[in-house]
Amino acid sequence: MRESRTAERGARIALYHSIPRADALNFERQMVFLKRNYDIVPLPELIKAIESRNRGSRPLLAVTFDECFRDAYANAVPALLRHGIPATFFAVCDFTDASKHGLQAVEAFCRERMYTRLVQPGMSWKQLRELKRQGFDIGSHTNSHAWCSKLADEELHLELNGSRDRLSEELGCQIEHFAFPFGTERHVSEKAVAMARAAGYRSACWARRGWNTFRTDPYHLRRDPLSPAWPLSVIEGMLCGLFDWWKPAVV
Fold first, then answer.
1. CB of 90 within 8 A of CB of 63?
2. What is the pTM of this model?
3. pLDDT of residue 68
4. I need a surface site. Which of 31, 52, 203, 232 has the fewest CB within 10 A?
């Protein structure tokens, strides 16, 4: 990796979802590779660095997880802890609640709210509290994994403010960062961005690939959707910007 060239461009944010057991070893290889080639920092620190134009010799990277699938807790968190890698987990309150009620409730939620055939329960509130205790950041991903551009003002207010308040109450901490479900231009409106800002969040993440620089609005943060199954060469290409044109389906 050409460190000086990539460092000049700004920072990248990695986005993961489910981490199946079959991909746990490869995911850990990815983390080792990323730590060797990037300065991996917590998301809040990355935002401060790009706002202050603080550039190091290596590109900055933050690691994030959407939905807080239970297999990420089982298969990703141990690797993150072993290698001292910070991460932010964006939780969906209703998914956390549904996961208490068995596989049928989980399947219905995944099909109806995430539009995915993946049937994987979410983390419990106890597991989310444990993540917080271990030093990871927790952010909001709405109450119901909402398609924000379709919502009326009242519904959007509930998704943004209600999820923030619920997470804060359950976890005993301030919730300062947000990620839009689906995270594309089709799913996010400028009204939703303005209301996220008004709700008091300090940032909002999307699922659009690309570099984040001092010109990047913190409510339009770009992230690179990654798969724990991909080889290191693909991960490197994604984070170097070779595939910034590609818009894969995301949840």
1. no
2. 0.93
3. 97
4. 52
